[in-house]
Amino acid sequence: MTTTPRSLDMIRRLVGFDTVSRNSNRALIAFVQDYLAELGVDSHLTFDDDAEKANLYATLGPGDRPGICLAGHSDVVPVDGQDWDSDPFALAERDGRLYGRGTADMKSFLAVALAFAPEILARSLQTPVHLAITYDEEVGCLGAPRLIEALDALPVRPALCIVGEPTGMQVVTGHKGKLMVTGRVTGHEGHSAHIDKGVNAVEIAAELIARLRAIARRYAAEGPFREGYDPPYSTVHTGVVRGGTALNIIPGECVFEFEIRDLPGDDPAAVLAEIRQYGEQELLPEMQAVSDRAGIAWEIGPRYPALDTGDDSEVVRLAKRLARANDTGQVSFGTEAGLFHEADIPTVVCGPGHIEQAHKPNEYISLDQVARCEDFMARLIEHVCEN
Ligand SMILES: [Zn+2]
Description:
Layout: H1 8-15, H2 26-38, E1 43-47, E2 54-60, E3 68-73, E4 92-94, E5 97-99, H3 103-115, H4 117-122, E6 129-134, H5 144-151, E7 160-163, E8 171-175, E9 177-186, E10 190-191, H6 201-222, E11 235-243, E12 249-250, E13 253-262, H7 268-290, E14 295-304, E15 307-308, H8 314-323, E16 328-330, H9 337-342, E17 347-349, E18 364-366, H10 367-386
Parallel strand pairs: 3-6, 3-7, 7-17, 8-16
Antiparallel strand pairs: 1-2, 2-6, 4-5, 5-18, 8-15, 9-13, 9-14, 10-12, 11-13
Helix pairs in contact: 1-3, 3-10, 6-7
The structure holds zinc ion.
């Protein structure tokens, strides 16, 4: 028999905001800002270009000491076309589980942290606890860089960070990075009876994609390899191709999208340099011999870097203690932790729920996972009071 989590009401509130990434998250952020203001805590907001989305950063306790940052994203993936048994944006409790979009990924972690805020503030904190809530994680970690950049304007940056993505409360110290790239081939249209007078953009794109495939094969065969990662090497994959209008027309344009998922230590820029050079040296001269308007353009981004926090790092020792975990691991999905890590803030990923339940219809978190996160938070409070 599981007990009702103390954080239940806050989870219900956060899930109730439809923060699918294409929507504004401002209502959720305003709710959190008001909630913290009533506790006497100021929030620092940073925005996207249209101010439709906001990040929130707030400090509980002394603002002039580095402290511990609890971080997570406010946005969720869409529910379009998914068959849900209940309203995804109204929390439903059934059989020891809480159902709703974002319960696992990752509003429950944020809700537990917020629900414990009054208790944190009631104690005499030696070490501050910072809350960092971001936008647009699910569409390429677009919000977190602005929040991290704004930390430089504050008196101190956090000493370490825990990103509460669903790991089943395991302490995760590593994941691959990801770089997304769009390739745009401009050819020269014409009648397909006269291919000698045109530049076939689809075929040029195919040659570039085949070269990316060769790079992917090389990674799989030659590495570098790293244990704990699945697969244990960097990967390259093309996921979208668009080009051509009719079989009897030489296609004038072709666009393709690919991604590089790089192991810690691998440089995705090297793949980019290789494919660029191949295009420029092997393909472009032939294209431009037919038309000087033919070309290959590359659009870089979004990206997040790999996470690779050493087991001897203070944040790992602390998170293991708070989560009562004996060991650490790696995950195959990416998180904002890589961005904090890149900004020299030692970071781990540790949060309630399981990634297997995320992004799916009937997403849920078990009450047991919420309880484990609450225990984690209670131990964190003891830690920040004694240190
Ligand atoms: Zn997530």
